[in-house]
Amino acid sequence: MDGMPGQGPLPALLLAGCGKMGGAMLSGWLERGVERVVVVEPHPEATAAFAGRVTVCDSVAGVPADFAPAAVILATKPQQADGALPGYERFAADDALFISIMAGKTVAGITASLGGHARVVRAMPNTPAAVRQGFTCAFPGPGVDAGQKALADTLLAAVGEVAWLEEEGLIDPVTAVSGGGPAYVFLLAEVMEAAAISQGLPPALARRMARRTVAGSGALLAASELDAAQLRANVTSPKGTTERALNVLMRPDAWPKLMEEAIAAATARSRELAG
Q1: 3-class SS at 167?
Q2: Phi and psi for 135 in degrees, rounded to 5?
Q3: pLDDT in tens, 112-152
Q4: Is 157 exposed, middle or buried (0-12, 13-18, 19+ CB in 10 A)?
Q5: Which residue in 155, 148, 184, 194 sits closest to 29, CA to CA?
Q6: pTM for this prediction
Q7: Can you list the domains of the chain with their CATH numbers?
C-alpha cells in the first residue's frame, strides 16, 4: 500500500479493540467516510453504537479471509498484546500498515509479535478525541513509507491534531503528559468543585462553575496566540485575590513540584509496560 487517500472515503480498516479510545477514533473515521471497517471486539456492548456500520468479529479468527485492510489499528490493552498480536500476522504479510495506540509497547516488540516484518506506526492519542479535539503524537517505525505515514496522519487527524516524533523514546513522556493529561484536568475540575463547596457555595453551582471555568479556560488557551504564562498573568492583578491563591499553588512544594513528580511517575510506568 503506497497510495494516499485523497478527499474521498478512507480505505478499508481493521480495528483491534473498541474501547473508549478505539471507539472515539472509529467515530471519526466513519464521519470522514471509510470504505469498510472490520472491528475485532469480544464485548458486544463496546460496538453497539456502531451497529450496521461496521463488521464485528469476536476474535481475529473471525475476520473474513478475503478482507485486506490498508491499515490495522491496534487498540487492545497493552497487557493483552503478547497473546493477541500473533493472530494479526497475516495482515503484515499483505503489507498492511499497523498503527499501535498501546501504551508502552515498542515498535520492535510489536514487529516481533507480528512475525518480524510488519511496518508499524506507534501513536499516543488522548480522550478528547471523542469530541474531535484530541492530540496525538506518532512515530514511524522502520520501513514505513511516505504513503503509509500520510495515511496514518489522515487517520489520526480525523480526531484532532497530530505531531510526529523523530525519537521513539519520546512517546513515554508524551503518554505521561498528553495521554494522561485529560485526567489531570478533570482532577482540577473535581478539586475546584470541592473547594467551592467548602467555602459555602451550593453543590450544583459549584459543579457547574468548576466545569465551565475549566472548559472555558481551555477554549481561551486554544484560541489565543499568547503562551499559558502570559494568560495566567493577565488574570492576576497585583495584590489581588488570584495572586493570593497562586502564591499557595506555586509554592516550591506545591503544583510545580507535584506535576513534575506526576509526569515522571507516569513516564516511568510507560517504560515499564514496554518490558
Answers
A1: coil
A2: -135, 125
A3: 999 998 999 999 999 899 889 999 999 999 999 999 999 99
A4: middle
A5: 155
A6: 0.87
A7: 13-167 (3.40.50.720), 181-273 (1.10.3730.10)
